[in-house]
C-alpha cells in the first residue's frame, strides 16, 4: 500500500518563556525534510518523564532552550528517508534513542551527552520529527506504539543497570525499588524476570497492591512506615538489601544508605527530591558510608543505541513478562492534562500521549490516511 503524502504543515507543542503546564501551546510548523543521513518520522505516541515535567516548569538542573518542544520519548513510523540512509525504509516502526548521538556506552563526551531531546534539542511532542538514521532502533513486533513509547528513557534506564553492564542483578538478590512510576515498574518487572527479590516502597497501599501483582515480593508504605529502612533490614534478617534503585535523591538517600548491605550497590537515578519537592532537602554525606560500608554509588543516565538494541532483543525474548504497564493514555490535544495527571502522582506505570490516533492499533497495521 502506498504511503500517504506528507502534509506541508504539522502540529507541535511548544514551551516558552512562561514555564508552567498551562502555558504549553500548540503551533503549526512546516514539516521538515530529512537530510542525506536522516529520516522523517511520523510520530505515533510519546510517553512522559519527570525530566519533561522539570523542563516545562523551569526546574531542570541541566541546560535547556528558552523555547523548545517537550518530551524526550516518542516513537513512530518512517515517512521519508534521506538519500544516503541504508537499513531503513518508509513504513518501518522505529524508536529513537534518548541520546541521539550516544552510539556506545564506552564513548561519551559532553557534546554527546547533550544530544537528548526535549531540552536543548526539540523533543517528540510533535506530529513529525526528523531524526538521525543511526539513532533508531526497531520496535519489537509484539508492542504497540503506545507501549513502545515507554521504552527510550524509562525502560532503558531500568534495563541498563539491572541487566546490562558490569553489575547485573542476580537471582536471589534483594533489590529495593522506590515508587511505582515508569522506571520503578520496569525495574520491578526486570528484577522478577532475573529471579531477584524485589522490595517496593510507595506512598499508597493501592499502588503497592498493583506492585504485588507485577512481582513485588515485599511492600512498604513509606507514609505509614517512614522508617522503611528499618523494615528492609528486618526483611533481610539484619543484613540489608543487595542493591537500591534510588529514584528520589537526597530526600531518601540516607535511608537507602541505611538499608543497603555492606558492600552493596546504590543505583542513583532520580533527583526529584531536590527539584520537585516543596519540603526541605537534607544534606547527605555519602563519603563516610562509601568508605566504611564499602557501598558502590553509581549514577545511571539512560543508555546508548547499542544498549537499546540489546534491550529490544531482551523484550522480544520475554514478550509477556516485560510488557510495559501503561497507567493512562491521552489524545495529543490533551497533553497538558497528561502532565497534570503526572503531577498528581497517582499513576502506576507510564503516562502516554497519542500523537496520532492509530497508534494503539495492531502492530504494523495501517488504519488509513490523514
UniProtKB/TrEMBL annotation:
Residues 19-353 form the Enoyl reductase (ER) domain. It comes from the Eukaryota. Coiled coil: none annotated. SMART domains: PKS_ER (SM00829). GO terms for molecular function: oxidoreductase activity. SUPFAM superfamilies: GroES-like, NAD(P)-binding Rossmann-fold domains. InterPro entries: ADH-like_C, ADH-like_N, ER, GroES-like_sf, NAD(P)-bd_dom_sf, Zinc_ADH-like. This is Alcohol dehydrogenase superfamily protein. It comes from Mycena chlorophos.
